[in-house]
Design a protein that fits this description.
By secondary structure, this protein is an alpha/beta fold. About 45% of the residues lie in helices and about 10% in strands. The protein contains 14 helices and nine strands. The protein has helices at about 25-35, 40-55, 55-60, 75-85, 110-120, 135-145, 170-185, 200, 205, 230-240, 255-265, 265-285, 290-300, 330-335, and strands at about 10, 15-20, 65-70, 90, 95, 100-105, 150-155, 185-190, 215. The strands form three sheets. A five-stranded parallel beta sheet has the order 6-7-8-3-9, with helices on both faces. The structure holds adenosine-5'-diphosphate and magnesium ion.
Length: about 350
Amino acid sequence: MFIAPHSPSTQTTSGRNLRPWQYTLQDKLILLKEFRIGFPAFRNAMDEVTEMIELGDGALGFNGVFIIGESGSGKTTFLETLVERYPSYEDEDRTVRPAVLVSIPSVPSIKFIARRILAKLGDPLAYAPRRDNDELTKAIITLLKECRSQVLLLDEINNFLQKKGRHDSVLDLSNWLKEIVDESKVLIVLSALPLGEAVIQGNEQLERRFSAPLHLELVKKTKWENNLADFRGVLKEIDGKLPTLRRSNLHEKDMATRLFVASDGRIGLLMKLLKRAIRIAHKKDAPQLDLAILEGAFKVEIWGEGEGPLNPFNQQFVRRRLNRPGEIYSPKIQSAMKGGRGSK
Ligand SMILES: Nc1ncnc2c1ncn2[C@@H]1O[C@H](COP(=O)(O)OP(=O)(O)O)[C@@H](O)[C@H]1O
Ligand SMILES: [Mg+2]
């Protein structure tokens, strides 16, 4: 029986148009690396932020968006995608930088973060020795205006809560942020792990500037059994793009449940799992992904101890999340792993 391959031909590294069965493993992995899935929460957040930017909400004083998600939920990718939409460009007398993205270091100090922002704004003051916080902060505010910046994006703001080796208190840091927001009139987009919400919650004046946080998840965790419809849509889209000879029917209800539990509803972990599954399938010359392949991929990529009922792709698996004490997605293990295995 002839089985028609489902994937459209794709331009590969070699520049040739190939069909899936002609791909090398490297071709397949490059294809997967370039995947960008606009899952519903991602698209909602993107619409919300771009609308705020277009309306000039920063200047009007409604100035904050908080993006929340566990490690591997796609926060950094979201911010980078947003910045790509608003690239810097040269105008007559200046470089215009509509969007400025800075990642908060794990040992945060006002000085260090200020220098990072200045570096992004192209100011040599970023590297000048012996400058005090006031001078650096004033320079940031002036430059954000000069560069006609509309949005300042700070990734991993939960690092404000780090205690080790800290110089400035959470309140010092959040007040400093408030000063920049107030003075420069930029829209501010913060990303954090769920616990990072405490950063603004501890500062009433800052909190007032933010609308409700946007959660970057594939599936709402409460009552997830009834909330798989959107996720199944995403799986269907992914399945259609996977470099396999046949579709794997990832969106079927049983399979979708297993994939949700395996990835904890995080895009990064889902892609990681599928990437490994594609490697295994390639070696086996399998025409599609199946339970056995995914079971192996889960063990290698997500949880080495995930065997029998603790592996979502095993026959013995009972439909429940793997978040009991000692299990891979238990809150304790996740925080011990600094938020999980999803980071790059
Ligand atoms: N929308 C997306 N579509 C496809 N892959 C994604 C998407 N968002 C993130 N990823 C992948 O997931 C991984 C983790 O994403 P990342 O943005 O670093 O998450 P976080 O910052 O929340 O820890 C990355 O390897 C990235 O390529
Ligand atoms: Mg990140």
